[in-house]
Amino acid sequence: MRLTTKGRYAVTAMMDLAIHEVSGPVTLSDIATSQNISLSYLEQLFAALRKAGLVKGLRGPGGGYRLAIPASDISVADIITAVDEKVDVTRCGGRGDCQDGQPCLTHELWKDLSRQLYEFLDKIKLGELTQWPCVQERSQQQDVRLGRVGTASSNASV
Predict the structure, then answer these.
(1) Cα–Cα distance measured from residue 29 to residue 64, given in angstroms and rounded to the nearest whole number
(2) Does the pTM of the predicted model rise above 0.90?
(3) pLDDT recorded at residue 157
C-alpha cells in the first residue's frame, strides 16, 4: 500500500487541529505554517473533511476550524477515506479483474491485507494519537518554534 500525501497530510492536519482546538477554532493558516503544508492544499483537504462531517468551519474574526465530532470518535481510516484515499493494495482496486478480467493468483492475499490495514487504521482514534508522548513532545516543539507557546499541546485532553 502506498499512502499518498493527501492521506498523510489529512491525518497530520487533523492531529494539529485536535491538539490545538482546546484554545478555540484553528485556522488553516496556522496548520499550514506549523505542519509545512500548502494552504491551498489544506483548503482542498478540509473541503473533503467538512463534507464527510469530520470538521466544521467557523467564519469571521476568531474563526477557523473545529472538529465536528469528538476526536475519540474519529479514526485514522475515517480521515483517509474522507479525502478519497483507498486502503487497498490490490492491483485491480479490489474489483477482482487483475489478470485478463479474472482475479490474479495473489488477489485474495492482497485483498485480505487491504482489509487488515483498514481494520488497523480504523482502530486508531485521533484522540488516542494526540496523547502519544512523541506527538505531545513534537507538538510542543512546533508551538515553541512558531510562538504558540502555552496554547494547547500541553493541555490536550481530547
Answers:
(1) 9
(2) no
(3) 38
Q: Give the residue extent of every domain in the chain.
A: 5-86+125-146
Residue 2 has pLDDT above 80, yes or no: no
Cα–chain center distance at 40: 17
Question: DSSP letter string over 90-108?
Answer: -TTTTSS-TBTTB--TTHH
Buried b / exposed e across 5-30, counting CB within 10 Å, b at 16+?
ebbebbbbbbbbbbbbbeeebbbbeb
Could you read off the pLDDT of 88-114 as tens digits, one per residue? 888 888 898 988 899 999 999 999 999
* Residue 128: exposure state from Cβ atoms within 10 A (0-12, 13-18, ≥19): middle
Cell numbers placing 36? 509545512
Answer yes or no: are the C-beta atoms of 4 and 52 closer than 8 Å: no
In 10 A of CB 106, how many CB atoms?
13
Please state, in angstroms and rounded to a whole number, the distance separating the CA atoms of residues 133 and 127: 13
Task: Domain 5-86+125-146: give its CATH code.
Answer: 1.10.10.10
